[in-house]
Structure formats: C-alpha cells, structure tokens
Design brief:
Serine Threonine Protein Phosphatase 5, Tetratricopeptide repeat, 9% strand
Length: 131
C-alpha cells in the first residue's frame, strides 16, 4: 500500500468506517507509514457512529500522539463517552480540556445571496437579519 497517498487511505478508512467495517478500516489505517490527524479523526468519527468505545480509545491515543492539543479530538472522545453513558471517562476528558486551556473553535458558514456574502456562526445573534 506504500504507493497510495495518505489521503487515499483516509478516504478508504472513512468509507469502511461508515459501513461498520471497523476492523478492516483499522488495518488499512495501520498500513499508512506516516498517518496524519485527518486519518485518525475520520476513523474516530466512525467509532462514534458505531459506538465502538474500545476501538475509539485506541485511536484517540494515536491521534493525541500527533496532536495533543487538538480540541476537536477531545470533544469527539467526550461525545463518544457521553453516548456510551461513561460519565467518569466523560468527566476526565472534559477536565483535561479545562486543565490544558483548550478551546473549541466554532464552525463558520458563508452564504452568498445576490452577490452579498453572509457569514454565520452557530449561536451568534450579531447578523443584521437575526430577529
């Protein structure tokens, strides 16, 4: 598999994960010589989708080795623990977020209407057309 770029493997891992072929997805991910955060985040999302907490913990550990301060990883793992009802683990991840002063960057959307670009952030009431 050395001839495939990591992006191609990430797409394969994502597709396999979406159809709950997590073991196969994990094998493909392990074939990448230098996995990146996108690969592990994609796989972590599949673990969340299919409620595979044990596999998610392994993947979370690998992702943290690459990007220990990536807030999205911590938030995703917190969501996995919350969905599984694992309150102690959820609290540990949330405390880790607070202790390391990590902040989630809100998503932003842009919409062009008649040549005017409108920017939105979830929960932001500052747009002039918000009632």
């Amino acid at each position: 598999m050395g001839y495939l770029l990591p992006l191609h493997i990430t797409c394969v891992v994502d597709a396999l994960g979406r159809v709950e072929r997590l073991e196969e997805a994990e094998r493909k991910a392990e074939e990448v010589r230098q996995p990146d955060i996108v690969l592990w985040t994609s796989f972590l999302g599949a673990c969340r989708l299919h409620k595979d907490v044990e596999r998610a913990e392994r993947i979370f550990s690998k992702a943290l080795a690459l990007e220990p301060k990536d807030t999205s990883l911590h938030v995703l793992m917190a969501d996995i623990y919350a969905a599984a009802g694992r309150k102690t683990d959820l609290a540990r991840v949330r405390n880790n977020i607070k202790e390391h002063h990590l902040h989630k960057i809100p998503g932003r959307s842009w919409l062009s209407i008649q040549g005017v670009v409108h920017s939105f952030v979830a929960g932001d009431p500052s747009h002039p057309q918000v009632p």
